[in-house]
TrEMBL record:
<feature type="domain" description="Lipoyl-binding">
    <location>
        <begin position="100"/>
        <end position="175"/>
    </location>
</feature>
<protein>
    <recommendedName>
        <fullName>Dihydrolipoyllysine-residue succinyltransferase component of 2-oxoglutarate dehydrogenase complex</fullName>
        <ecNumber>2.3.1.61</ecNumber>
    </recommendedName>
</protein>
<dbReference type="GO" id="GO:0006099">
    <property type="term" value="P:tricarboxylic acid cycle"/>
</dbReference>
<comment type="similarity">
    <text>Belongs to the 2-oxoacid dehydrogenase family.</text>
</comment>
<dbReference type="InterPro" id="IPR004167">
    <property type="entry name" value="PSBD"/>
</dbReference>
<dbReference type="GO" id="GO:0045252">
    <property type="term" value="C:oxoglutarate dehydrogenase complex"/>
</dbReference>
<dbReference type="InterPro" id="IPR000089">
    <property type="entry name" value="Biotin_lipoyl"/>
</dbReference>
<feature type="region of interest" description="Disordered">
    <location>
        <begin position="181"/>
        <end position="205"/>
    </location>
</feature>
<feature type="compositionally biased region" description="Low complexity">
    <location>
        <begin position="181"/>
        <end position="199"/>
    </location>
</feature>
<dbReference type="GO" id="GO:0005829">
    <property type="term" value="C:cytosol"/>
</dbReference>
<dbReference type="Pfam" id="PF02817">
    <property type="entry name" value="E3_binding"/>
</dbReference>
<feature type="domain" description="Lipoyl-binding">
    <location>
        <begin position="1"/>
        <end position="76"/>
    </location>
</feature>
<keyword id="KW-0012">Acyltransferase</keyword>
<dbReference type="InterPro" id="IPR006255">
    <property type="entry name" value="SucB"/>
</dbReference>
<feature type="region of interest" description="Disordered">
    <location>
        <begin position="248"/>
        <end position="272"/>
    </location>
</feature>
<dbReference type="InterPro" id="IPR036625">
    <property type="entry name" value="E3-bd_dom_sf"/>
</dbReference>
<keyword id="KW-0450">Lipoyl</keyword>
Length: 500
């Protein structure tokens, strides 16, 4: 008897709802034939049969909510369990060496349709334990580790390092034992190549894909199947429906493909060409989109950091002893910005079509540089946090960002952003907006400068502040008022306590 369990749903997704069963108890099923469809809060996941046989008991009925790895049904070996004729070798392999389990791409998150296999932690023939990390995928937003769905032996790697896979692709096969599943691999690998186009008529598409094609009036001949043997999946139909017309698609890459200026042969020999990571490509695209969309303007001011530095030096020892985290400057800036956003709410708003959406909360984005590029983890409900809670959240998010462990959910939903270029020595810059936000505050290096105070020239620790804002929604008066309120709160932190 083989158990059918909920597959890995992706980081931060812990449960799903059983939407539809395509089979009923007593029906014969083939390997990889779709049994049911699960719905999460992000995507729809189809569950294939892990082995051929007869569907025994359905444990989770339609409409039930199930967790990751929960038992959905059982498959019994028995008569009428003949596999589909298209892939006999792949079906016979489990009988010889134990059941085999496909390792699929986990849920990548909303709007993410593909990923690049960055590294494999295991090689073919290695023994793996359930939930042991097999490989790491790199999307245009985060890195995703793929755990083993079952214990066994890594029999086949179908997506080597560097390859690009879609959200429904198979990455590898785990055999239940080490009894030489390799002979099945060539047949399984060869089948899609031969069945994708000529033998497609013999392959049964996913029921949800057939339903969606009928609803949208899409011809199956115009859809490239990514499932086993060229099977058309629901995601394939969605891609086909969203695909642009052939002519624009062909011409779209033209601007990016502009030829380089001629390079001397001796210089070319000393150059190194490295493919941009998906994260870096996304950063480049989003920053340029921000410039093309928003009416971006930057206003500047300077702040005397004397009082904040004195307060920090006086209490940082007691603060760390009590709260277990260092007292930095970010909590002061976060508090000051929250204070200013209450007075100038348009800086904490966004444009949606012809509407302005005002946010009665502050989800503070904190830009962080990582070895792979710039990311912006979000501190949710920062307006209700204490200094200690803010410092702890920033420290935890920063560590996860540097380790590449941030989930997509942790980088979405921000309403305003802080960018601290001062940690790298920047004295002045104009930060770029993080769409759809309407404001971002750039912090810079603290530098001793001579200042005129009460008719006297004194040396003070000064910092330049830069507020970039979307002039479509924020007027100059609002931007300057926001920056002045931040300056006032930092130069006299007591104002934060009195809400002045």
């Amino acid at each position: 008897m083989t158990e059918v369990r909920v597959p890995t749903l992706g980081e931060s997704v812990t449960e799903a709802t059983v939407a539809t069963w395509f089979k009923k108890p007593g029906d014969a099923v083939a390997v990889d034939e779709m049994l049911c469809e699960l719905e999460t809060d992000k995507v729809t996941v189809e569950v294939p049969a892990p082995s051929a046989g007869v569907l025994g008991e359905i444990v989770a009925a339609e409409g039930e909510t199930v967790g990751v790895d929960a038992l959905l049904a059982t498959i019994n070996a028995g008569e009428g369990a003949a596999p589909a004729p298209a892939a006999p070798a792949a079906v016979e392999a489990p009988a010889a060496g134990g059941d085999s389990v496909d390792v699929m791409v986990p849920t990548l998150g909303e709007s993410v349709t593909e990923a690049t296999v960055s590294s494999w932690f295991k090689a073919v023939g290695d023994t793996v334990a359930q939930d042991e990390m097999l490989c790491e995928l790199e999307t245009d937003k985060v890195s995703v580790e793929v755990p083993a769905p079952a214990a066994g032996v890594l029999a086949e790697i179908t997506a080597p390092e560097g390859s690009t896979v879609d959200a429904t692709a198979k990455l590898a096969v785990i055999s239940g034992s080490g009894a030489a599943p390799a002979p099945a691999a060539p047949a399984a690998a060869q089948a899609p190549a031969t069945a994708t186009t000529p033998a497609r008529g013999d392959v049964e598409n996913a029921p949800s894909a057939n339903k969606l094609m009928a609803e949208k009036g899409i011809d199956a001949a115009n859809v490239a199947g990514s499932g086993r043997d060229g099977r058309i999946m629901k995601e394939d139909v969605l891609k086909a429906a969203l695909a642009p017309a052939p002519a624009p698609a062909a011409s779209a890459p033209a601007p990016a493909a502009a030829p380089r200026a001629p390079v001397a042969a001796e210089d070319a020999a000393r150059e190194e060409r490295v493919k941009m990571t998906r994260l870096r490509q996304t950063i480049a695209r989003r920053l340029k989109d921000s410039q093309n969309t928003a009416a971006m303007l930057t206003t500047y001011n300077e702040v005397d950091m004397t009082e904040v530095m004195a307060l920090r030096n006086q209490y940082k020892g007691d603060f760390e002893k009590k709260h277990g985290v260092r007292l930095g400057f970010m909590s002061f800036f976060t508090k000051a910005c929250v204070h200013a956003l209450k007075e100038v709410p348009e800086v904490n708003a966004e444009i949606d079509g012809t509407d302005i959406v005002y946010k009665n909360f502050v989800h503070m984005g904190v830009a962080a540089g990582t070895p792979t590029g710039l990311v912006v983890p979000v501190i949710r409900n920062a307006d209700g946090m204490s200094f200690a809670e803010i410092e702890k959240a920033i420290a935890e998010k920063g560590k996860r960002a540097r380790d590449g462990k941030l989930s997509m959910a942790e980088m979405q939903g921000g309403t305003f952003t802080l960018s601290n270029g001062g940690v790298y020595g920047s004295l002045m810059s104009s930060p770029i907006l993080n769409p759809p936000q309407s404001g971002i505050l750039g912090m810079h290096k603290i530098q001793d400068r001579p200042m005129a105070i009460n008719g006297q020239v004194v040396i003070r620790p000064m910092m330049y502040l830069a507020l970039s804002y979307d002039h479509r929604i924020v007027d100059g008066k609002g931007a300057v008022t926001f920056l002045v309120r931040v300056k006032e709160a930092l130069e006299d932190p007591r104002r934060l306590l009195m809400d002045l």
